[in-house]
Amino acid sequence: MGLAGLIARRAGRRIVSSLPALLGVVVFTFLLMRVLPGDPAIFFASGPNAGQAEIEQIREQMGLDKPIPQQLVLYLRDIATGNLGRSMTTGQPVLSDLKNRLPASLELTFVALILALSLALPLGILAALKPNSIVDNAVRFLCTLGVCVPTFVSGLLFIFAFYYLLGIAPDPTGRIDIFASQPPVVTGFLLIDAALAGDWEAWRSAASRLVLPASTMALFVLAPLARMTRASMLAVLTSDFVRTGEALGLSRRRVVLVYALRNALLPVLTIMGIVFSTMLGANVLVEKVFSWPGVASYALDALLSSDYAPVQGFVLLMATIFVAVNLTVDVLYGLADPRISIE
Amino acid sequence: MTITRRDVLAGSAALATAATMGGSASAQTRAETLRQVTGNAVNTLDPTMPGSTREAFGISVNVYDRLVSFGKKKLGNGWVFDPDTIRGELAERVVTSADGMTFTFHLRRDAKFHDGAPVTAEDVKWSLDRAVSARSLAAAQIQTGSWTKPDQFKIIDPFTVEAKVDKPDRLALPNLCTLYCIIFNTKLVKPHMTAQDPWAQAWLKDNAAGSGAYMVESFKPGEQVVLRRNDHWKGGEDGKPAHFRRIICQTIPEAATRASLIEKGDADIAIDLQASDVPTLATRERVKVVSTPQFNAFTMVAFNTQMAPFNNVKLRQAVAAAMPYQDIFKAALFERGAALFGGTWTEGPDKAVFPQPMPLKTDLAKAKQLLTEAGFPNGLDTTFSFNVGSAAVSEPMAALIKESLGKIGIRVDIQKLPDAQISTLVTEKKLPFLTETSIAWLPSTDYFFRNFFTGDQRWNYSSWNNAEINALTAQARFEQDAATYEKLCKRMIAVLAEEVPMIMLWQPNQDAVMAKTIDGYVYGYHRQVDYRDMKRV
């Protein structure tokens, strides 16, 4: 069997084995939402003069008039048919809301992750090559700074400095200039859609709006990535095969970048998977600060107003993404180190 | 085909021209566009949908027309809606019968829906039938004006509609001015009616079928709404279309970002900035601030009058005398509003308007004495609740109340609750002592009392059930004689001052912060921006 077939079989088995976990997440979130205090029907009926009749009507609309076990069964049936319910906050089906908003969150997260990796890998390697030197300490300082400043603080600071004071950043609202024309939606990723449409003005507008939020996120996750790279490089650099390589007269560059780094990447990959999943959820503050129309801020708004359907939909989405990311990481493991096979 | 050097040159010249023209075109669009930034999102195009946000109300006011609407008057340094003058919107004129029970609406002959179809009596009848029949927010509101069933609306001829009430209700006509009584284009709506949804509520949530000054160009729920001017609309006061060609209403959750957008000139108007930011913005002078007292709103502290210990009148009076009025007005609201305490009358009010300053002032010695008379010489323990959404104002308020009541022996535990949770507890009447801000769309005294001081609905925050007030409000509603009405209202206010089921604190200002070039802002009953009045000068 070829490598591709092996990977596909492995992936299939992993997906099947993660189904019980997803089901557990669905049931748990469902129950959790119902024990939280606050009656959504009353909240949404809070218009002028809304009385008991309106409350009852909304309760019925949201299906809250039925006993909880029955609600759960109905909910599971709906999920099986791809119906995640309707959001009271936006008035739209949750599925279409998530579909519209997920690309925004993913685009931001991907760009932030690439940005973070392109900084963290070199910094981590540099720090590992000269442990306890000035470089190492400078990297440590940067990481500490990044991790201890909350994203909403750094985000607001960035806005204040680059938009308000210096005026070099575009107005920090949304993914594209509100007066610019939007490229037709193909993938939902604005950078890709604009490039496909050949609309470079829109591409520039979208890209320039990504800089501040992505930097905010990147700064926040720099620490785990750089620290993990450093630690794992340190361990590898002292191992036998590196010493052998050096003794054989291979160039320092070749030893570090080809032999050592490839072996040091495994733990970094693991961390990357975790960082990616947490970023998607932890984006919420960045999304709020930059009015980014992503899924995390959507879920937060829903949670504050006890809007059950979007919160449940969001948790399910996150769980699915987590499963997918773990799977990808496992596959990448196999590519980085063929000795590893996960069954 | 061969491409010569000349072709290339001509081509690039054309491109260069196109580029400059494109630039000027978009600059022009910017000048002709009004960009409003709001904290909340528009969640429906049909404002009668249960759960619609205030921002959704604002959009619908501009997209739909009503038969009649309120005029405007000067108040403070700005314009506000005038509930006492009613002018035609789709109706050219309204004839009220001598007994005040029949209203005849003569429609404008030139009024057209966005698709060009004329607005007819049939559309009006269907829309009003929908308002009283569909299960929506509209029915609950307009029954306060005695509109309850479709039989009340009759088509006289294609451009005349008659509406009748059984008793001369003071609020019958004002209710038809509210944003719930919008007129729909029945030709567009009817194909979307189904057996389960006879009033096409599902379709109208995402689609507009109106005749208003603006048409919906794009609607992204939770993000933004873009409106385009309806050039055929002539419903403004001067009979001209609205000024702005385009309107963008965009959701920006972070208040600080909204403030910097306005200050940098990237956005044109915001009405929901943080109260503490507004004075700073005003002093930096790059923007214009129009502050109008929300004369139909109020912030109050309510007691649960149906539950111990606050079912005790003396105790309520004691707390009212211990409230640090001026301090909280200053610390929580930066005095940006009209005070509703410190009235000087004793026997009864001089005016019948409400809310008005009540005769309440801080007097700790009197408070201590009243507390003893109430049977609590050693004080008591209670909780004071407010919602997280109002923390900027309520947090300092709660701290000062706790401190001041502590001086007379009342130990207050502060309880900060998420919005959904406090709505539930308020509706279920489980909180003993709380603060909220509320609003009455139709600010007449009897309406205030009917909504906030009688009945068991959520808005009767203090669950007050006073036989005299119940009788007075029932009578005032249908009272045609102005002098008698005034007498009834003054009596209601006097009873309120005596029994203090609720302590009125203030009417917060509506601070509209806008670019210096923007003019024409009017404070509306819905607390939103009416784009039809707005101009860039």
From TrEMBL, chain A:
One Pfam family from the record: BPD_transp_1_N
Keyword annotations of the record: Cell membrane, Membrane, Transmembrane, Transmembrane helix, Transport
Membrane topology: Multi-pass membrane protein
Major subcellular site: membrane
Domain of life, source organism: Bacteria
UniProt cross-references to InterPro entries, sorted A to Z: BPD_transp_1_N, MetI-like, MetI-like_sf
GO MF term set: dipeptide transmembrane transporter activity
GO CC terms of this entry: plasma membrane
Domain ABC transmembrane type-1: 102-333
TM regions (residue ranges): 15-36, 108-129, 141-166, 206-226, 264-286, 314-336
PANTHER family the UniProt entry points to: DIPEPTIDE TRANSPORT SYSTEM PERMEASE PROTEIN DPPB-RELATED (PTHR43163:SF6)
Similarity section: Belongs to the binding-protein-dependent transport system permease family.
Identification of the protein by name: ABC transporter permease
From TrEMBL, chain B:
Stated family: Belongs to the bacterial solute-binding protein 5 family.
Record carries keyword Signal: yes
Subcellular localization(s) per the UniProt record: Periplasm
Signal peptide residues on this chain, from the entry's feature table: 1-27
GO biological process entries: peptide transport
SUPFAM superfamilies found in the cross-reference section: Periplasmic binding protein-like II (SSF53850)
CDD domains: PBP2_NikA_DppA_OppA_like_7
Pfam family, one: SBP_bac_5
GO molecular function annotation: peptide transmembrane transporter activity
Main location: periplasm
Keyword annotations of the record: Signal, Transport
Name the record gives this protein: ABC transporter substrate-binding protein
TM ranges: none
Solute-binding protein family domain location: 86-457
InterPro entries hit by this protein: Peptide/Ni-bd, SBP_5, SBP_5_CS, SBP_5_dom, TAT_signal
GO cellular component entries: ATP-binding cassette (ABC) transporter complex; outer membrane-bounded periplasmic space
